[in-house]
Amino acid sequence: MANHSQLGFQDASSPIMEELIQFHDHALMVALAICSLVLYLLTLMLTEKLSSSTVDAQEIELVWTILPAMVLITLALPSLRILYMMDEINEPDLTLKAIGHQWYWTYEYTDFKDLTFDSYMIPTADLPLGHFRLLEVDHRVIVPTGSTVRVIVTADDVLHSWAVPSLGVKTDAIPGRLNQTSFLATRPGVYYGQCSEICGANHSFMPIVVESAPLPNFEHWSSSLSS
Question: What membrane topology does the UniProt entry give (predicted)?
């Protein structure tokens, strides 16, 4: 999760989030090159003596047409690649259904029989020592580490959004519609998120907690709940 005074992204815990951070850095380098060029030209115009010599209009038009097109290509190609990677879901190992309510989440593990539960935020007065205020829930989502998890997202009442920044996941929950996304947690840990769509008075009080655990721990947890 984010630290105090943190300016960058949270540490990536999935391949998709790693790609997103790399693309962000790539786009910033392109923007820095453009700003440096513009600053250099402005400085040159302000400090150098003006000249009456002109350049052929066709040469100028060729440069200011091709150069921006090349810049757009350097941004578009990696962006489209990541978009297709985020949209592609190949043979998931586990399917999780997340249903948004005002103001809590319901989770259903569709690969298991009768494995479903509601997830509410723990009030500050009942929060155990060392846990995060407004982010901890009474029932966490447990997923196996290194497994592709498909998440089917919908809502029961109003618009919600299921978002976990460290995993690179953010999908709108729309009543009457099923949206899907996927993630793969690369290491064990606890990842925090929140509803990212304004959904009413208690919008700030429906956090998301995903815990990535080794496969034997996940199997023990799922068998204890479904039995």
Answer: Multi-pass membrane protein
pLDDT at 87: 85
- Dihedral sign from CA coordinates of 170, 83, 19, 9: negative
pLDDT confidence tier of residue 6, bands split at 50, 70 and 90: confident
Domains detected in the chain? 15-87 (1.10.287.90), 94-225 (2.60.40.420)
Rounded CA-CA distance 85/50 in Å is 51
Going by C-beta distance under 8 Å and a sequence separation of 6 or more, which residues neighbour residue 105?
98, 99, 118, 119, 162, 206, 208
Which run of H or of E encompasses 52? none
Q: How far apart are CA 149 and CA 183, in angstroms?
A: 6
Has this prediction a pTM greater than 0.90?
A: no
pLDDT digits (tens, 9 = 90+) for 128-147: 888 889 999 999 999 999 99
Tell me how long the chain is: 227
Identity of the residue numbered 147: S
* Summary mean pLDDT of the chain: 89
